[in-house]
Amino acid sequence: MLEIKDLKVNINDKEILKGLNLNIKEGEVHALMGINGAGKSTLVKTLSAHYDCVVKEGSITYKKKDLLELDVAERANEGIFMSFQNPIEVPGVNNSYFLKTAINEKRAYAGESEIDTMDFLKLIKEQTSKYNLDKKLLQRDLNEGFSGGEKKRNELIQLLLLDPDLIMLDEIDSGLDVDAIKTVANVVNAMLDGKKSVLMITHYDRLLELIKPDFVHILNDGQIVKTGDYSLALELDEKGYEGIGIKDETK
């Protein structure tokens, strides 16, 4: 699904990713871990076409297409979804209208007919009730005045309704209580159908206990320096980064 080769990325003229390589196949769950400043968020932001990220070298192939040739809207319509660390507030844009527009843009891109209002409301009811998510969030403006937990739950509603192929979670578990983390895991696990793939950034083993990764990657100083299975996350939790031979290059 995704092949990244020798990726070098600058932010504000500073090199953050320094020749990163990563392959993700259909149906795989990958966890990305590392100290703050290692480049984790830069990677998923680059995959999402964030304007801060300037690709200097390397290639990214997504579903046999050159991802770097696609703009941010095309990437979303091709099935890439990113849940942000801290979703921004957009006053004046109704949450429900935003979502319905996004769904219809994706359907138009795929040559499908628009979803009508009744089917949209039915879809919202089905998905939110299945995971006990508050559909009243959709009556408000996009993230405006939302608590941290409400923003994360709203991201889950977006995830369910947009039904992406590559799910990228940038610390979606930060600041959440145990029950909320279980809800995140239930939603993601239910979506794993053997074709969808996940790339999740986390500092905590709690989420990885619930969404078992096939691969765990340790990112340090802009490169993946260690890869293993779930046991690597357990070892990291027990010993810390220095204990598994990872030095903090920012010090």
TrEMBL record:
InterPro entries: AAA+_ATPase, ABC_transporter-like_ATP-bd, ABC_transporter-like_CS, FeS-cluster_ATPase_SufC, P-loop_NTPase. Coiled coil: none annotated. One of its GO terms (molecular function) is ATP hydrolysis activity. Keywords: ATP-binding, Nucleotide-binding. SMART domains: AAA. The keyword Flavoprotein does not apply. Residues 2-246 form the ABC transporter domain. Belongs to the ABC transporter superfamily. Ycf16 family. PANTHER family: ABC TRANSPORTER I FAMILY MEMBER 6, CHLOROPLASTIC (PTHR43204:SF1). NCBIfam families: sufC (TIGR01978). This is Fe-S cluster assembly ATPase SufC. It comes from Poseidonibacter ostreae.
